Automatic annotation (TrEMBL):
<feature type="transmembrane region" description="Helical">
    <location>
        <begin position="311"/>
        <end position="328"/>
    </location>
</feature>
<dbReference type="GO" id="GO:0005384">
    <property type="term" value="F:manganese ion transmembrane transporter activity"/>
</dbReference>
<dbReference type="Pfam" id="PF01566">
    <property type="entry name" value="Nramp"/>
</dbReference>
<feature type="transmembrane region" description="Helical">
    <location>
        <begin position="226"/>
        <end position="251"/>
    </location>
</feature>
<feature type="transmembrane region" description="Helical">
    <location>
        <begin position="114"/>
        <end position="135"/>
    </location>
</feature>
<dbReference type="InterPro" id="IPR001046">
    <property type="entry name" value="NRAMP_fam"/>
</dbReference>
<dbReference type="GO" id="GO:0015086">
    <property type="term" value="F:cadmium ion transmembrane transporter activity"/>
</dbReference>
<keyword id="KW-0812">Transmembrane</keyword>
<keyword id="KW-0472">Membrane</keyword>
<feature type="transmembrane region" description="Helical">
    <location>
        <begin position="370"/>
        <end position="392"/>
    </location>
</feature>
<feature type="transmembrane region" description="Helical">
    <location>
        <begin position="184"/>
        <end position="205"/>
    </location>
</feature>
<feature type="transmembrane region" description="Helical">
    <location>
        <begin position="12"/>
        <end position="31"/>
    </location>
</feature>
<feature type="transmembrane region" description="Helical">
    <location>
        <begin position="81"/>
        <end position="102"/>
    </location>
</feature>
<dbReference type="GO" id="GO:0034755">
    <property type="term" value="P:iron ion transmembrane transport"/>
</dbReference>
<feature type="transmembrane region" description="Helical">
    <location>
        <begin position="43"/>
        <end position="69"/>
    </location>
</feature>
<protein>
    <submittedName>
        <fullName>Membrane protein</fullName>
    </submittedName>
</protein>
<keyword id="KW-1133">Transmembrane helix</keyword>
Length: 400
């Protein structure tokens, strides 16, 4: 996936990195979580979105900037802070990425089932083949960029179409975004963890490095790309929030078994269910691509053969995820535990990078803005405490 090193990245690469990060975070879990929390909090969920977007921006601006300024991947930076820490981080990322990819593959199968009535396992296998084909191209990274951009645009367009169709109380949503009547800490943690947690934290930054973008002079482009990624995710989240709000504010009850699908069905009938299928498939298949690409980017520096055969290892990663789903379904316990661990990856990774940014052997003479350090440290503390609480709770559920 290596490309010629350029100091000035093309607009396509910057957009590609932004959309890779955004579409990686917009997966099956994103659709379900947003629907469930909107049903619980109603218009006040707008406040949760606002807080999570601010935390996302603080996290991503720090991570992307430090990676590109240093010219090193997350695991290389971690090893410079504490020898062996990069391996620990890589193991967490790869384990989490594989577990979530099983869910992503399943989501793609469900998407084709809703869209075309296809058997879920068959749909999952066909979706995996589609994702694999991307990495068979010589310039796989460019194909990946383009696929992420097209899928992102399609999802946003369809989501806004459904949102407008449900006639949501937009005025109330705006008021409650700044003056909520109900606040959920769990919802904030879940949204931040799902948007910039786990492998997603590094998806865009690693993509920019692969495109040859590095050094202090690249900071303005990095800022633009990272914020664009967060905005794309936020726009999608807001559109889905308004669509769900429009349905539940009419007093309609969502199906607990598949709440996201029922929003579209209640809004537009059978056509709505097909639209849900398109959005679910696009969200899931781009997450399959993003999870596989970023997870492998965390081990490619450990041996020259991994970097040499990177695309084939990515293909194997997708194939293994699909095989596990096809043979044993979604291993719920593994997914739950991986979800809880995901919440700890962000504070561990961001905390490590914030220490590294003050080490000359990592960033040279670069001076990191104090406001970014403070906001980044705030995200580390908040997500660290809440992440540990969530992990303890999930282990208790599994043991109990």
């Amino acid at each position: 996936m290596g490309e010629k090193v350029t100091q000035k990245a093309s607009r396509s690469v910057l957009l590609g990195a932004a959309f890779l990060m955004a579409t990686s975070s917009i997966g099956p879990g994103f659709l379900t979580q947003t629907t469930v929390f909107t049903e619980q909090l109603l218009a006040s969920f707008g406040f949760v979105i606002l807080v999570s977007v601010l935390l996302d921006i603080f996290a991503q601006m720090n991570v992307w900037r430090i990676i590109v300024v240093s010219g090193l991947r997350g695991q290389e930076i971690a090893n410079k802070v504490l020898p062996g820490l990069g391996i620990v981080l890589a193991v967490l990322i790869v384990f989490g990425g594989l577990a979530f990819n099983i869910g992503n593959v399943a989501g793609a199968g469900l998407g084709l089932n809703a869209m075309l009535g296809m058997d879920t396992v068959t749909g999952a296998i066909l979706s995996a083949i589609f994702a694999i084909v991307i990495f068979l191209f010589k310039e796989a990274s460019k194909v990946m960029d383009r696929a992420a951009q097209i899928a992102g645009a399609v999802m946003i367009f369809l989501m806004f179409y459904v949102a407008v169709s449900t006639h949501p109380p937009v005025g109330e949503a705006i008021v409650r975004t700044f003056a909520p009547t109900d606040i959920s800490i769990l919802a904030i943690v879940t949204l931040v963890g799902g948007t910039v947690g786990g492998y997603i934290t590094f998806a865009g930054g690693h993509r920019l490095l692969d495109a040859g973008l590095k050094g202090v002079e690249a900071i303005p482009e990095v800022n633009k790309s990272s914020i664009t990624g967060i905005i794309v995710t936020a726009v999608m989240r807001i559109a889905l929030f308004l669509a769900v709000l429009g349905v539940v504010s009419q007093g309609l009850k969502l199906d607990a078994a598949n709440p996201a699908a029922s929003v579209f069905q209640l809004a537009l009938g059978d056509i709505g269910y097909r639209i849900f299928g398109v959005i679910m498939w696009a969200a899931a298949v781009t997450s399959v691509v993003g999870a596989a690409y970023t997870s492998v980017s965390f081990i490619k520096t450990f041996h020259k053969n991994i970097a040499k055969y990177e695309n084939w290892i990515i293909i194997a990663f997708i194939a293994i995820s699909t095989l596990i789903f096809a043979l044993i379904g979604k291993p719920v316990n593994v997914l739950v535990l991986a979800g809880a661990l995901n919440g700890l990856i962000l504070p561990l990774a961001l905390g490590t990078l914030l220490i590294a940014v003050y080490k000359k052997d990592v960033v040279g003479s670069y001076k990191h803005p104090i406001w970014l350090t403070i906001t980044g440290a705030f995200v580390v503390v908040v997500m660290g405490v809440l992440g540990i609480m969530t992990l303890i709770e999930q282990i208790g559920i599994l043991v109990g």
